[in-house]
Design a protein that fits this description.
Layout (H helix, E strand, L loop, with lengths): L17 E4 L3 E7 L2 E6 L2 E4 L2 E6 L3 H19 L7 E3 L11 H4 L3 E5 L2 E2 L2 E6 L5 H9 L1 E2 L2 E2 L15 E2 L2 E2 L13 H8 L2 H23 L3 E12 L6 E4 L8 E5 L14
Antiparallel strand pairs: 1-2, 2-3, 3-7, 4-5, 6-7, 8-14, 9-12, 9-13, 9-14, 10-11, 14-15, 14-16
Helix pairs in contact: 4-5
Length: about 260
């Protein structure tokens, strides 16, 4: 099998323990400090995994995350990501390497924070619906007269949510105080917010210079044992975690629904 063929599951349990089988990713433990993430071609929609898949989707998502993992630390001081290498560990037989080429990531094992760090730069989709209802987004008051899909007047906003792990469960918007309670430390919660806004701003500028607009995105973070550092984890700025628009094809005003 090549990366152009459909891969819906992996099976490395004979070589290392399976830690988690998510909606799209299979996660194995290589050693006490390192995990192996295999990104499959499974499709997840509205927190449900569908029966079919998209060939090469996993490879594309892996390479996008790896690209941002290399770029972002050069733009944001003291930012660390969990990525170690795209190589498969030596436990995996070489005969299986072609199947998982560009689908695998060795990453730091972290203690994940149980929130999703969402940053919104534009008044679109669910944010627009909320604004129409009571002129707020995730409890943040906004001035009257804003148009659909235009930038927020005071810059990007941070709107954390719960992280739904159970099958069929949905993420729910929460306040920053609720996020801090879930994180377990106001210091770590503040760091997550600080990094999320910095990453969004850097990525927005990077994408804009290449003809794309980053409308909104979500990040996940974990705590590295020993150093106590907050580290960027999971997928980074992929089409599954972010909304990108083509510059010049953005419709602004009621009924537009975002970019083209």
């Amino acid at each position: 099998m090549s990366t152009n063929e459909l891969l819906l599951t992996s099976n490395f349990s004979a070589f290392m323990p399976l830690v988690n089988k998510g909606k799209v990713r299979d996660i194995y433990q290589i050693n006490p400090s390192t995990l192996l993430i295999i990104t499959t071609d499974r499709i997840s929609a509205f927190d449900v995994t569908l029966a079919n898949g998209i060939p090469s989707k996993g490879a594309l998502l892996t390479l996008i995350s790896a690209h941002w993992s290399r770029i972002l630390p050069t733009l944001i001081p003291n930012l660390r990501t969990h990525l170690l290498t795209l190589d498969l560990p030596p436990q995996i037989p070489s005969a299986q390497h072609p199947t998982y080429h560009h689908r695998s990531m060795q990453v730091l094992k972290l203690h994940p924070f149980k929130i999703e760090a969402i940053v919104r730069g534009y008044l679109t989709r669910e944010a627009w619906v909320s604004y129409q209802h009571d002129r707020t987004v995730s409890g943040i008051p906004l001035p009257a007269g804003l148009r659909e899909s235009e930038p927020f007047p005071y810059g990007p906003i941070y709107t954390p949510s719960t992280k739904a792990d159970a099958p069929g469960a949905h993420d729910e918007d929460i306040s920053e105080a609720q996020a801090a309670a879930l994180v377990g430390s106001s210091e770590h919660a503040d760091r997550i917010k600080e990094l999320s806004l910095a990453i969004y701003s850097a990525a927005h500028a990077y994408a804009e210079a290449r003809g794309l607009i980053l409308a909104d995105t979500k990040f996940e973070f974990g705590l590295e044992e020993g150093s106590g550092e907050v580290v960027l984890a999971d997928e980074i700025l992929t089409p599954e975690s972010s909304r990108f628009w083509a510059e010049g094809r953005v419709c602004r005003g009621e009924g537009c629904g975002g970019g083209g």
